[in-house]
Amino acid sequence: MATKLKPVDVVTIGVGLTGTILAQELASTGLKVVGIERGRWRDTEHDFAMPGVHDELKYVRNKELMQDLSKETITFRNSGSEAALPMRQLGSFLPGEGVGGAAVHWGGLTWRFLPWDFETKSQTLARYGAKQVSDECTMQDWGVTYSELEPHFNRFEHLYGVSGKAGNLNGKIIPGGNPFEGARSAEYPNPALKEAYSSALFRKAVEGMGYKPFPVPTAANSQVYKNEYGNTINACVYCGYCQFFACEMGAKGSPQTAVLPTLMKNPNYELRTLCNVVKINLDSEKKRAVSVTYVDSRGREFEQPADLILLTSYVLNNTRLMLLSGIGKPYDPNTNTGVVGRNYAYQTPSSVTLFFEDKNFNSFMGAGGLGLAIDEFNGDNIDQSGMGFIGG
Amino acid sequence: MSESKGRREFLKSAAALGAAVPVGAAAQTKSEHAQHGTHPAPKAAAAQSRPYMFLSQAEVAFLDAAVSHLIPKDELGPGAKEAGVTYFIDQQLFGGYGSMAKKYTQGPWPEGTPQQGYQSPLTPSGVYRAGIQDTNKYCQKTYGKTFDQLARAQQDEVLKGLDGGKIELEQVRSQFFFNMMLNNTIEGFFADPVYGGNRDKAGWKLVGFPGVAAVYTTFIEKHGVPYKAQPVSIADITGRLAKVDEHGHPIHVMIHDDKAGA
Asked: What DSSP string describes A7-42?
């Protein structure tokens, strides 16, 4: 039987990238916030210390910072006709576990969506007509636009100390940045990272072809930076242990560097680690979430009532909790009805490896997202008439 | 200059500078410390002192033979066997990796599609036990000897048969076993020496990898200039054999050969 706890104003289920920012914003208005995290406390000084943090076997191959699948996992299949089977080991999806979540081991890539991305359907129909879109395509406009989100993109970049170079500042095209990006209200808080040899060669090649290369925006901070919460993020030292790893320098924008030092001092905030939320409880009319049930590391079950319950885990677990709790209508791909679990999209980049006989790249050096990109082929930046695809 | 010639020269210069320091498991940091000076212990003795925790002697013989094909010793340097990969695999199978400590191990057990990945009811330690047993059974039947007793050409034939799925094993899919062995061999050759493989940092020296990273803030902009450092392992730092800066990054000792003089 669950022990019922004293109600609070807000509960976040998960204490990662979104859970920490929302908690900080809400706790600073005077609301009592409880963060419930299934994993353990992790900080730079104790958990990400040299030299153990530079261990490729532990962190890349055996995925030390990610979800322990022995306790719970997802099942998956590639089409409705297959039998769904358990994901036994981590592969494509790398959900985090523990305070900071996946934003501890992320590579720091901090792209903004293009304005086109928010209005994919209407813009595609307007430019190409209905013939460009297959009947099976379920795309729709987001319902919010780039310009509505721009202030939030900007604030997040300034919170995490993103390094980059603006290409469109209030509508004015700036050399060196991405001329195809949506208009920015401000320059990046930190200048772009230094350019590696591979980037320099790429720059030379694509500039010669008439394209406009720009530095990839990344939360690896290019200099020591202090954010609006008063937290200091260190400068990246290009050690090359970024994605899959935690940063020993505290130079990667993360809950640990950008938010938690302030949040943990706020008397309105309480963090409960090693506590796994198993259900969101609804009122008698099933209209309103009123509490969460969780199990702590001693096996005790608690019910925590709250006015506001925020799903701040990764989308897979958020969706799973909603389905387990009877919230919303589950998505049915056969009838294309329901919204919970609908249109899950996962970013799957592709890559090409080049070998040069006569060049030395010291490719063990680098930073998360250190590199150049061109956007000429992204989004709707090229004419895709009759190409059989949209989105670049 | 060809890639392999460059590697040879790198290795030559590294050896000339006495960078070839035997490095063992974390538990052996003490003896390694003693070895680091002017009196290195004979390699054979160091190898013998490693206690195998999971593999039987027959399994050690099998893996010594198998990994020496996957990464052979050649003019560029030691291969997987010499680098302690069998011992690395033993330690992995004995530990969390072998029992899938952080992986999902409950049923159901249909084979699934290739895209559904690992779907065997066997943990890696079970895969090795079954795979080695069945492969030896196949070798006995086909050649009248166990795998480790075969001529190298025959061993090659068997490994290719496992890799291509032409040899059917009874208890485990042959390609599944082969791929696991290949992956673990690569891991053992290149992982930090604290895990018992990559002995003498053979894997890192081969590819010019400096191991635990230093601060590269300045060097990242030296385009095209090879960064040649004596590789540093985790145990070098915890054992205080390598100097570190205020954040704990090693201060790499650079290798200056004739070519890198510029």
From this structure: PEEEEEE--SHHHHHHHHHHHTTT--EEEE-SS---
Enter the tokens of residue B26. 């974390």
Environment class of residue A355 by beta-carbon count within 10 Å: exposed (0-12), middle (13-18) or buried (19+)?
exposed
> Could you write out the DSSP letters of every residue in A216-276?
PPBSB-SS-EE-TTS-EE-----BS--TTS--TTS-B-SIIIIIHHHHTT-TTEEEE-S-E
Scan for tokens 């490719």, then name that residue: A363
Token pair 């925590």 in the structure block, residue: A304
Burial of A12 (0-12, 13-18, 19+ CB in 10 A): buried
In chain A, which residue's Cα lies nearest the Cα of B226?
A360
The residue type of B172 is V
Residue type, A104: V
Instruction: Report d(CA B71, CA B64) in Å as an integer.
Output: 11
| Closest alpha carbon to B98 in B55, B51, B159 | B55
Q: Return d(Cα A354, Cα B123) in angstroms, integer.
A: 36
Average pLDDT over residues A274-297: 97
Tell me the per-residue pLDDT of B240-257, one tens digit each, with 9 for 90 and over. 999 999 999 999 999 987
Residue B33: how many CB atoms within 10 A of its CB? 14
Residue A209 CA to residue A374 CA, distance in Å, equals: 11
Q: A237 vs B216: CB contact, 8 Å cut-off?
A: yes
Measured between alpha carbons, how far is A16 from B207 in angstroms, rounded to an integer?
Answer: 37
Distance from CA of B238 to the nearest CA of A (A): 8
Q: What is the pLDDT of residues B94-133, one digit of tens each?
A: 999 999 999 999 999 988 998 898 999 999 999 999 999 9
Asked if omega into B108 is within 30° of 0 (cis), the reply is yes
Question: Tens of pLDDT along A2-30?
Answer: 999 999 999 999 999 999 999 999 999 99
Which residue type does B251 have? I
Residue numbers of B between 129 and 158 with CB closer than 8 Å to A: none
Q: Name residue, tokens 């000792």.
A: B253
* Arithmetic mean of pLDDT, A55-74: 95
B85 interface with A at CB cutoff 8 Å = no
B221 touches A at CB < 8 Å: yes
Pick from B87, B119, B89: nearest CA to B103: B119
pTM of the predicted model, to two decimals? 0.89
Residue B44 has pLDDT above 60, yes or no: no
pLDDT computed for residue A349 by the predictor? 77
Q: Which backbone phi and psi does A76 adopt, to 5 degrees? A: -150, 160
User: CB count, 10 Å around CB of B5?
Assistant: 9
Hey, which residues 170-209 in chain B have their CB within 8 Å of chain A? 187, 190-192, 194-195, 209
Which pLDDT tens digit goes with each residue over A213-254?
999 999 999 999 999 999 999 999 999 999 999 999 999 999
Paired with A75 in beta bridges are A86
ipTM over 0.85: yes
